[in-house]
Structure formats: C-alpha cells, structure tokens
Amino acid sequence: MSVNPDRPAEITPEELAAQTALYAPFTQAVRELVDATIRTTVDPATIRTAQAEVEAITARLREEQLEGSLGAHFGHGRARQPWGNTVVGLRNPVAPPLRPVPAGDREGEVHAEVVLGAAYEGPPGLVHGGVSSLLLDQILGTAAAAAGKPGMTAYLNLTYRRPTPLGPLRVEGWVDRSEGHKTWARGHVVGPDGPTVEAEGLFVLPRWARELLARRGDAEAPPAFE
Ligand SMILES: CCCCCCCC/C=C\CCCCCCCC(=O)SCCNC(=O)CCNC(=O)[C@H](O)C(C)(C)COP(=O)(O)OP(=O)(O)OC[C@H]1O[C@@H](n2cnc3c(N)ncnc32)[C@H](O)[C@@H]1OP(=O)(O)O
C-alpha cells in the first residue's frame, strides 16, 4: 500500500476506464497462468518449451517498466487506484482479487465474494492461514476507510475456528467502534459451512497523516484508498 501523501496523477474517467479495460484482462490471464503452472500434468518437453515462452514474455514486458512498485499513481479526484495492492490490485496477478462492495447495515460494512484456487493453498485442499489473514486485514481496513476513518493496521487478532476450504468464500468486515484517529473493526471469512476465521483489529490514522491534515487545515477526509 502506498501512503505517499502527494496527490496522484490526475487522469480522466475515460482514461481510467480505458486502462481498466486494458489491464484487468491482462492480469487475469497471468492469474490463469499461475493456476495452470501449479496444476499442469503435461510432459517434461512441453514444460521446457513453456518455460522458454514465459521467459520471452517476461523479457518483452521488462523492456519498459517502473523503477519501484505501482503505489497509487493514478487517480481521479481524491480517489486513488491501488492497482498494485496484493489483495485488491487491478494490476496485481497475486491478488485473488478481492472486490469489496458496501453491504449489510453495520457501520462501514463491506463484503467480497472470492474464489481461492490452488495458488492459495496451505494445508492440502485448504486456504493458507496467512492468506485468510491477508484478506481480513484488507477487508477490515476497507471497512474503516468506508466509514470515513482510514488507518493503518496497528494490530490484527485472528481466531481460526475451523479449516477454510479452497473454492468460493465470502469475506466480510465492519466497524465495531472508533475514538478519534483509532478505529476497531471486525470481520470474518465465511465458507460453505459458515464462518471459518474471525478477525478483530485496530486501524490508526498515523501521526504523520494527522499532522499533515492539521497543517493543511484540511476539513476533508484523507485521500480514499480502496
Ligand atoms: C494523508 C492520508 C494518509 C492515510 C493513511 C492511511 C491509509 C490507509 C487507508 C485505507 C486502507 C484500506 C485498506 C488497507 C488494508 C491494509 C492495511 C495494512 O496492511 S497497513 C500495513 C500494516 N501496518 C503497518 O505497517 C503499521 C505500522 N505501524 C505504524 O505505522 C504505527 O505504529 C501506527 C500508524 C499504527 C501508529 O503510529 P502513530 O504514529 O499514529 O503512533 P501513536 O500516536 O503512538 O499511536 C496512535 C494511537 O494508537 C495507539 N496504538 C498504536 N499501536 C497500537 C497497538 N498495537 N495496540 C493498541 N493501541 C495502539 C496508541 O496508543 C495511540 O493511542 P492514543 O492516541 O494515545 O489514544
């Protein structure tokens, strides 16, 4: 996640739509490649050929690239696009991706439907505990931001109630309570048989951000991150 306080490059809604149309299917194709890489049973010669082809594609993409990570370079108005984010990033093939949408009637409540495949395995056939934590960190942070109280994770407590199967899951988050720059959020991962992992976390608008906003005399909410 980039927390660069500078304003993002402004792009028009049309340009944003064009970039989304370009990169979303490209990134999805790479996700498919990862899944195919894990599950293929083709013969060794085909693996070697495929490896050479993948290496050629990688070299072509590296002909022009950013110095560092993607950050939150693009935006329209105050909304930034976290396209590199490892959970929701439109341009990150590692991201499942999660697409949180407002739902329910609790403060800041957001839900996301997601299908976790072979790339997210921990125990055989099950979701890795760190992946569940990854999704919950993001959805709780998104709930805090959706309630107008964005912050960074100060702590995240998890209770793994029962194993989480790979496949279709729902991830839910909401705000429990807040005091000034501190927001406590809760959430869970829900499998076919009900909740599997529960989370409770504290999200803090960092001191540097509070000071920046105070210096600006900014009555507006901080920049929105998804
Ligand atoms: C211009 C706008 C900027 C916006 C910035 C936010 C953008 C995010 C928005 C939307 C995101 C949407 C989705 C995101 C999801 C993913 C989230 C992640 O993965 S975040 C990466 C992992 N987390 C870290 O790397 C944090 C590392 N830690 C820190 O940076 C600091 O420790 C931080 C920010 C947590 C606190 O730093 P302090 O500089 O504000 O420090 P002090 O003023 O001492 O603390 C503030 C209050 O918080 C309490 N506090 C801090 N840590 C605590 C803890 N572990 N337990 C309990 N209380 C704690 C303190 O006791 C203090 O309370 P008292 O103000 O006195 O009431």
Structure commentary:
The chain is α+β, with helices and mostly antiparallel strands and 226 residues long. It folds into 2 domains: 1-94, no CATH class; 98-216, Hotdog Thioesterase (Thiol Ester Dehydrase, Chain A, Roll), CATH 3.10.129. The chain is 32% helix and 26% strand. It contains 4 helices and 9 strands, in the order βααββββαββββα. The chain has helices at residues 13-39, 44-61, 129-146, 207-216; strands spanning 9-10, 74-76, 79-80, 101-102, 110-116, 152-160, 167-179, 182-191, 194-204. Strands 4-5-7-8-9-6 form a 6-stranded antiparallel β-sheet, covered by helices on one side. A hairpin with a 2-residue loop joins strand 2 (74-76) and strand 3 (79-80). It starts with 8 loop residues before the first strand and ends in a 10-residue tail after the last helix. The structure holds ligand 3VV. Ligand 3VV binds at residues 1, 3, 5, 137-138, 141-142, 145, 150-155, 182, 202, 204-207, 209, 212, 222-223, 225.
CATH H-level superfamily of the largest domain: Hotdog Thioesterase
Strand order of the largest sheet: 4-5-7-8-9-6
The major β-sheet equals: 6 strands, antiparallel
Number of strands: 9
| End-to-end separation | 10 Å
- What characteristic shape results from the CA principal axes? globular
Structural class: alpha+beta
How many domain units? 2
CATH topology of the largest domain: Thiol Ester Dehydrase, Chain A
Please tell me how large the radius of gyration is: 19 Å
Under CATH at level 1, the class of the largest domain stands as: Alpha Beta
Level-2 CATH architecture of the largest domain: Roll
